Structure formats: C-alpha cells, structure tokens
TrEMBL record:
Name this protein carries in UniProt: UPF0749 protein YlxW
Annotated coiled-coil segments of the chain: 52-79
Classification via InterPro entries: DUF881
Keywords attached to this entry: Coiled coil
Cross-referenced Gene3D superfamilies: Protein of unknown function DUF881
Length: 233
C-alpha cells in the first residue's frame, strides 16, 4: 500500500510537471510568435516610413528644380521682353526719322496756314510790296517747327531739313518745284499750340499782316501728307 501511494504521488508529480512544461512551452511559443509579429510590424513601419521620407526628399528636389527652371524661364522672358522693347523703340525711332525726312506719308491733327497776296494794291505802291515772298514762308515754317510741328508741307509738297526756297517774282520755287500763290502751309502737331504760337501779339501773323500779306489759320482734326518724292531732291 505504501508503494502504491508513492506511485500515485509520483504519477501526480509527473503529471503536474508535464503540464507545467507543456504550458511553459506554449507560452514561450506564443511569446516567440508575438515577438516575430512585432518585429514584422516594426519592419513594415520602418519600410513605409523610409518610403515616405524618400518621397518627401524627392518632392523637395523636384520643387527646387522647378523653382530654378521657373526663375530661368522668367529671366529669359524678361530678356526677350527687353529685346522686343528695344526693337520696338528702334522701329519707332526710325519711323519718326523717316517722317521728318519725308520718306513716309504721315497724318494727324494740325494746322493749315494760307498766305495770299494782298487783294488790293494802291496804284502809287509797288506791287512787290504786296505779294508773298520767300522770307514770309520761312517765318511761318520756322515758327511751326519751334512750336513742335512733326511734319510740314507747302502746297502739298513735303518740307524737310534740307529743303530750299527761291523767290522769282510771284512764284516761289521749293526744292526745284515752282508754286504760285496762294501758299498753303500745313503742319501736323498740336493744333492749339501751333495756332497760339503763330497768333502771339507782335508774332508771325502780325508781322505778315504788317507786310500786307493776307493770312488765314485753320485747325484740322486730320491732315494727310504724302511722302517726299525722289524727284524733289
């Protein structure tokens, strides 16, 4: 009986020990599985975090590259605009010079000045004292130029810087072309300024009237002038 009791106790002890060993193994296995799972989760998080950092770094590089290219394009556009403006300025300057030299037709607001020989000549006076002469035309032209006229024509013939006059009796020759009275001098510019400049007290108009010249001034919203003909000199 004592031997059987010992066997029962030994079997119970072995059973308990086996259970404890089995439980410990199971716990250890579960712990190992959890550690592995945690390791995989950490690896995934690390992988995704690294991917995110790489993308952010790449985006930063692309933004910097885009900024650099944008600045380069802006610099190019600014340079192109400056060149275009310079070209436009050159073209406009050339156009103004061609207008001044009569190489291009021109139109715009301005003033017409008509100079006529005196309608009445006293019998005791010399007729030469009552007709338009070269200096009279010079007076008007010079005053118009001083008042800012951009273009001038006499009886439709363009007047330029190297134009010349010659008076032969009642006829005036301009650049080799003869013109009889009346003489219509047209000027393109500010009509009010041109009119006021000629109409000053003791100015050009008063002087012409004193010389027995009939003078008419007329403002115009648009005056057209042809280009200077090569045959005019």
């Amino acid at each position: 009986m004592k031997l059987r009791g010992k066997h029962v106790i030994l079997a119970f002890v072995l059973l308990v020990t086996g259970f404890l060993v089995s439980y410990s193994y199971t716990q250890a296995d579960e712990s190992s599985q959890m550690v592995k799972l945690a390791d995989r989760t950490w690896e995934k998080e690390y992988y995704y975090r690294k991917q995110l950092l790489d993308l952010e770094s790449k985006n930063k590089e692309l933004r910097e590259e885009l900024q650099t290219k944008t600045e380069a394009v802006q610099t190019y556009e600014d340079g192109l605009a400056a060149n275009e403006q310079q070209i436009a300025d050159f073209v406009e300057r050339k156009k103004r010079l061609q207008m001044l030299t009569g190489q291009l037709p021109v139109k715009g607001p301005g003033l017409s000045v008509t100079l006529k020989d005196a309608a009445y000549i006293p019998s005791e006076e010399h007729a030469n004292n009552y007709i338009v002469h070269e200096p009279h035309i010079h007076q008007v032209v010079n005053e118009l130029k001083s008042a800012g006229a951009k273009a001038i024509a006499i009886n439709g013939q363009r007047y330029v810087s190297n134009s010349y006059f010659a008076c032969t009796g009642p006829v005036i020759t301009i650049d080799g072309v003869q013109h009889p009275a009346p003489f219509v001098i047209t000027a393109i510019g500010d009509p009010d300024v041109l009119f006021s400049s000629l109409s000053l007290k003791n100015g050009v108009v008063d002087q012409l009237v004193t010389d027995n010249i009939e003078v008419e001034l007329e403002k115009s919203a648009e005056i057209q002038m042809d280009a200077r003909l090569s045959s005019e000199g």
